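Slack export, channel: ligand-projects

TW: morning all. Re-posting the request from yesterday since it got buried. We need the structure predicted with the small molecule present, not the apo form. The ligand is pyridoxal-5'-phosphate; the SMILES is in the block with the sequence. No rush, but it would help planning for next week.
GE: picking it up
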Amino acid sequence: MDFEAFFKSELDSLHQEGRYRVFADLERHRGSFPRATRHTPEGPKEVTVWCSNDYLGMGQHPAVIAAMHEAIDHCGAGAGGTRNISGTTHYHVLLEQELADLHGKESALVFTSGYISNWATLGTLGQKIPGLIIFSDALNHASMIEGIRYAKCDRVIWKHNDLNDLEAKLAAADPNAPKLIAFESVYSMDGDIAPIKEICDLADKYGAMTYLDEVHAVGMYGPRGGGIAEREGLMDRLTIIEGTLGKAFGVMGGYIAASTALCDFIRSFASGFIFTTALPPTLAAGAIASIRHLKASPFERVRHQDRVKKLRSLLDARGIPHMHNPSHIVPIMVGDAAKCKWISDILLDSFDIYVQPINYPTVPRKTERLRITPTPLHSDGDLERLVDGVHQLWSRCALARAVA
Ligand SMILES: *Cc1c(COP(=O)(O)O)cnc(C)c1O
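GE: finished. pasting the full token output, ligand included:
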């Protein structure tokens, strides 16, 4: 086989479908986020970033940076091994205590990413619990889908956030089979929020465990940043809460929080936990500082919600359609793949505004969008420049306006 020709022809078809991904070559500057330098063939340019998942700007918070400096000066660069073979540092132990406390659980277990935490936990539960059926929301993240696939257990996909469909599927399953319901709190692309309480009620009724991915909520919701389940007083009703250290906490890594026995079980049986080098102590130290700061400080969360509200009202004033949802994710609905990509390109090249277009297959065709994530660090002027740019390009594309 001509391998090179194969790779190229597969890439060509991505180009033809307009799905080829181009990464913006950015350099973030501590102290000036959301500003960044973009490296282009014509030289460097200053841009404003509008699509970062560093939702609160904690990636440059002085407390986080100081903790990371201290850890690297104190104990060097890498962890030096898997958690089992000399890779567990005191920072990992403290981080797991901090996370268990954040979610009101007995224990927590840290992984190298949120992706791995979903994949390893769901995969291990599905492989090890005899006859387990996993009920998975249709819009669950790729990492959950891959974990369930790897488990090779029975799986049932229920319609997104649809309690009637979930109940019908639970009722249709063998009443004696062990069950687990896997879902997210805030969904990344539409920014909608799951009915967590009602899902927990169904779980109780049918004897199922619950697995909640709070990746897009931790740090941002609840009095201490414990997520939507904390805000709604539901943390004790969830069997497992999963989160990331890489988005609102601004660092990197993933975790689950659950009972001591469950965390110990995953620690002891999950290949994706056991056979990989532990997070560097610097990352664990930075995450601890970030979580501690956000537990005590409502400032970032209040300012974040204020920025979101302000952006929505500026968009409404110009009649630019955006999806109305109860979260911090503001999807501006373009509804056309070529126009979505074009607006994003021109915003970047002519307005120095960076927002990645979201096209199929990430979202369904005809719902192509610009997914805007305002942070506490975007100023009023930033918001106005963004909406002004989108407004001008909206007219040039002859896109419909929303009726105010
Ligand atoms: C980003 C994401 C993950 C993966 O987390 P990482 O820490 O980035 O690996 C898991 N679940 C959802 C819903 C996500 O959006």
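GE: first-pass observations. Residues 113-115, 118, 141, 143, 184, 188, 213, 215-216, 244, 246, 254 surround pyridoxal-5'-phosphate (CB under 6 Å). The domain at 25-59+297-402 is CATH 3.90.1150.10 (Aspartate Aminotransferase, domain 1).
TW: perfect, thank you
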